[in-house]
Amino acid sequence: MEESTGRPTKKKVVVVGGGLVGALNACFFAKRGFNVEVFETREDIRQAKVVKGRSINLALSHRGRQALKQVGMEDKIVSQGIPMNSRMIHSPSGKQSAIPYGKKGQFILSVDRANLNKELLTEAETYPNTKLNFDHKLQDWSAETGQMTFARPDGSEKQINADLIVGCDGAFSAIRKQFLRRSRFNYSQTYIPHGYMELTMPPINGEFAMKPNYLHIWPRNTFMMIALPNLDKTFTCTLFMPFDEFEKITTGDEVIDFFQTYFPDAIPLIGVDALKEDYFRLPGQAMVSIKCSPYHIGDKCVIMGDAAHAVVPFYGQGMNAGFEDCIVFGEVLDQLNEDFSAVLPEYSRVRVPDDHAIADLAMYNYIEMRAHVNSKWFIFRKHVDNLLHVLMPKTIIPLYTMVTFTRTRYHEAVDRWHWQEKVINRGLLFSATGAVLGGSYLLIKNPPDISKLIIPAEKMRDRLVVLWTH
Ligand code: FAD
Q1: pLDDT at 457 exceeding the cut of 50
Q2: Which of 13, 92, 304, 440 maximizes the CB count within 10 A of its CB?
Q3: From the centroid of its chain, how far is CA 195?
């Protein structure tokens, strides 16, 4: 447990939602000495037999780790995760090729969502100034008085007051409903046409069925499958595909035919019978992107995590961004002496551009992956970017590296990326002009063997899809 500061502040902070961001936030507020109560609609998942929820595992990267570090939990969570140093690309023929995530020593971690949530709740509970309340569903609240009404499973209601309400109640936030009723609150939500489905790849002879320290990817242009390793030596495979494609497959044999065409190497690893069964266990799940602003109402309420910015999962940043929200709020509390009337607007001012940037980037990735991966110019540009990063590591930094392995503000990463694009494109134009004028003479005199220089388009497209995601 991290020591609480023991400061004399007695302000009461209620965190609504005890998911990943809510549970971590409770630790952040408790550490500062606030009186913290968490209200969560689900039962205590540490006692539950079945934990319902979204993805089974997630990729934890630098921003999320930094937040965990601030509450003394980084080492514990990292020790329970599986490092993924590279993507492993599976071609339709079953050939595998690895593409590192970054420099040596840079990796993302596959962590179990339920376990991470349980660890965070247990950590929050170790602070004497924190109380966790399960089976409490927020029904309504008042932005004027700070009074909240919670519904209990037995039909009763409970009224609670707070100095500060922190809405961490996810993409379909009940807290956010009050924001929607207010003037000058901007809100947009977009469901993408793709859904996702999770399938389990069991261990073979007690060992991982594939190499464990990789995020396995089967990129297939308009759809793809990924697999992340779990501590029990299973892999969780996630198939991302347009809903109408999911719906076209209606029988077990059609599932096998589909996998035979696109993911043949995965069939023996998942198992024919398991595949036929698992595919129909749950329908494809929807993915939504939500952007809004501001993130606060007066000095009473602030929203964080998916409640403020649900993003599509194509950058592996949703939780990481939510965890970083907790760090940023803490930084603003420090700057403004924990004066909520100043802190909340400042938090919105600082954080909205960054969370909007990662929401846009995740959506851009989703579109880019399908639209541009076959463009020759785009493929060529990716090569140039990587080469320049090797030659000038401080000047040209790939966007993925900035987002995943640094705490560069998301919107600054995007600005820098645009600047790099401009500089590189101009450089290429000058080089091309020079090359045409000066080089054509040499080329005519000494023609090279072009076949040795060109990378097959199929191979490049597959590589690009993954360089661009996860
Ligand atoms: P949630 O996890 O949704 O938690 C909200 C909590 O609030 C829940 O416990 C809920 O029960 C509770 N609640 C809801 N309503 C009420 C109410 N009325 N009263 C009280 N409690 C309430 N992110 C990454 O960083 N890396 C990844 O690799 C990654 N992969 C993903 C893959 C998929 C398929 C998906 C869908 C998402 C992925 N994400 C990933 C995103 C990540 O899951 C979310 O960003 C993260 O769960 C957000 O946490 P949260 O606490 O804000 O919201």
Answers
A1: no
A2: 304
A3: 16
Specify the ligand 1 atom closest to the Cα of 228: 28
Sheet containing 86-90: which strands, arranged edge to edge?
Answer: 96-100, 86-90, 214-220, 223-229, 235-242, 186-201, 285-293
Q: Whose CA is nearest to atom 16 of ligand 1?
A: 169
Paired tokens of 15: 């965190």
Of the candidates 268, 238, 244, the residue with the CA atom closest to the CA atom of residue 256? 268
Q: Rounded CA gap, 342 and 298, in Å?
A: 9
Per-residue pLDDT tens digits for 171-213? 999 999 999 999 999 999 999 999 999 999 999 999 999 999 9
3-state SS, 376-393, equals HHHHHHHHHHHHHHHHCC
Q: What are phi and psi of 248, to 5 degrees?
A: -65, -25
d(CA 35, CA 162): 10
Q: How many CB atoms are located within 10 Å of the residue 331 CB?
A: 13
What are the Cα distances from residue 434, in Å, to 29, 63, 392, 400, 453?
A: 59, 42, 22, 31, 20
Residues 445, 443: Cα–Cα separation, whole Å: 5
Spell out which residues line ligand 1, taking CB within 6 angstroms.
16-22, 39-42, 54-55, 58-59, 137-138, 168-170, 174, 196, 238, 305-307, 313, 316-320, 322
Amino acid 461: pLDDT: 46
Q: How far apart are CA 391 and CA 386, in angstroms?
A: 9
Structure tokens at 315: 């950058």
3-state DSSP assignment of residue 174: coil
Helix (H) or strand (E) holding 324: helix 318-335
Candidates 55, 69, 391; CA nearest to 237 is: 55
State the average pLDDT for the chain: 90
CA distance 205 to 137: 44
Chain position carrying tokens 């019978």? 273
Q: Looking at ligand 1, which residue's alpha carbon is closest to its atom 33?
A: 55
Q: Which two tokens stand for residue 205?
A: 């002879």
Residue with tokens 């090569």: 383
**Cβ partners under 8 Å of residue 337, min gap 6:** none
Classify the C-alpha dihedral 28-29-30-33 as positive or negative: positive
Both tokens of residue 338? Answer: 């924990």
